[in-house]
Amino acid sequence: MVKRLVLILGDQLTPDIAALKAADPARDIVVMAEVRAEGTYAPHHPQKIALILTAMRKFAVQLRKAGWQVAYSRLDDPDNSHTITGECLRRATEFGASEMLATRPGEWRLIEALEALPLKTHMLEDDRFIASHAEFDAWREGRKQLRMEWFYRDMRRKTGLLMEGDKPVGGQWNYDAENRKRAKPDLLRPKPLRFEPDEMTEEVSTLVEAQFPKHFGRLRPFHWATDRAGALQALEYFTTHSLPRFGDEQDAMLSDDSLLSHSLLSPYLNIGLLTPIEVCQAAETAWKTGRAPLNAVEGFIRQIIGWREFVRGIYFSEGPDYMTRNALGHTRDLPPLYWGAETRMNCLSRAVAQTRDLAYAHHIQRLMVTGTFGLMAGVDPAHLHEWYLAVYIDAFEWVEAPNTLGMSQFADGGLLGSKPYAASGAYINRMSDYCEGCQYNVKDRVGPKACPFNLLFWNFVHRHRDLLSSNPRMGQMVRTWDKMTPDHQAQVLTESAAFLARMDGGESV
Ligand SMILES: Cc1cc2nc3c(=O)[nH]c(=O)nc-3n(C[C@H](O)[C@H](O)[C@H](O)COP(=O)(O)OP(=O)(O)OC[C@H]3O[C@@H](n4cnc5c(N)ncnc54)[C@H](O)[C@@H]3O)c2cc1C
Ligand code: SF4
Description:
Helices cover 49% and strands 6% of the residues. It has helices spanning 18-21, 36-40, 46-65, 84-95, 108-115, 133-140, 148-159, 199-211, 228-249, 266-271, 276-288, 294-318, 346-358, 363-377, 381-391, 397-408, 425-431, 452-463, 465-469, 475-483, 486-504; strands at 4-7, 29-33, 69-73, 99-103, 120-124, 163-164, 167-168.
């Protein structure tokens, strides 16, 4: 019988993933490879590399126990070619294999690389998601506007989550009106579960420190789970302790509690230690057993079967050129403050410091702090895409790129989101306590202490007035700008240009 390779990538750590389901342990050889190219094509955060490599090693042990032969390349193996394709070819020669089974990677870059291999590669659809590619494409066919809410309702019907027959439980599809409150410091808020690194995590961490010494981000302390048992514990802990407050605190930001009631489950979902359906069912059970209110559970499930599936559908249906979109024509370099250079803007300083320390920031920090600032400053979306891909522990292109380029930067011209997420400092002031500790004054629109989010917001409205005036959700902003006196407008534009010039010149702003 012809020997076949079965490729398992670092985000495919699921025992019944398509390639394993189609393979035969008696005949096929599983190939897993830690390679430098994957750690460096973007300068990934050390905690992200450590999580993936540790979880891969543990998954390989599990596969061997289950009877698979695993050809595993370690980062420090002398024969390692340090690319995924190089390792596939090396193993093909070693085992005399001419065929390979693979689950379709979550990134066009790797799909194209595997397709170019001189091996007969059977690329199977990744069926760990709720919607298949064909289902998403059929849903999108003929629609002028792609709105997540409609797609989400179909996913509710498909999964039966929070449904009574064909009606949503409680009579409403969406309980956001009850969510999204400003958070208050609360000593009783449960802290997320922290995992102490075991021997294997320590061994990998030492390797990561040696191999990627210049990457942005602190490796230690490292508190992530690295196997399915740990991920299940994190899920159980979240549904019991944090889910009840998830809805209320979903959009809030606090200086002294950067995690609030978020689940921190995205890395486990994205590398395959948890499946989306089991996570949603656990949340639904929490509601059914009276442990969490409907507004929290519906909001949480919507993020997973709604947003997560929707952005994946967009990524794959749009194709590889999505990553080059730049509808607003922004060209600025990424300001050094994103890599930790000092800034007087407390909101950005907090969000970046937290990212450096934890490889994590929650959605609103990504969208309304680092994202909104980059958008309004006119940063090239490709630079922001590379940054988000590098610095977050859960960042894989299929989910990161649509969120960054589409939702946060409007680079796809409004395909994914209905409006650019531009906002003055008032939004951050409403949803956080950051402004209280800031050297700028959130109430000042101009002057020496004017909040840069205010300056840049009106600058953005002015620059993109044609686009915004035709947008039902932003048109009012253009009218407000038009009502300001010409002198005031000129002052805003002069001061915002001066701010950007100082930032571009490398000054701390
Ligand atoms: C600019 C930008 C970049 C982002 N990059 C990524 C990324 O690389 N990887 C990633 O998984 N998410 C990304 N997100 C979405 C979201 O910020 C993260 O999923 C979330 O912060 C993960 O933390 P959590 O598990 O505590 O989420 P929770 O707030 O607890 O939410 C629960 C789950 O819902 C899912 N989810 C929530 N929002 C989204 C969304 N917009 N898109 C997809 N899934 C969502 C996640 O799986 C998450 O684990 C990005 C958002 C923005 C604005
Ligand atoms: S005042 Fe402006 S810059 Fe400072 S924290 Fe508030 S929004 Fe951020």
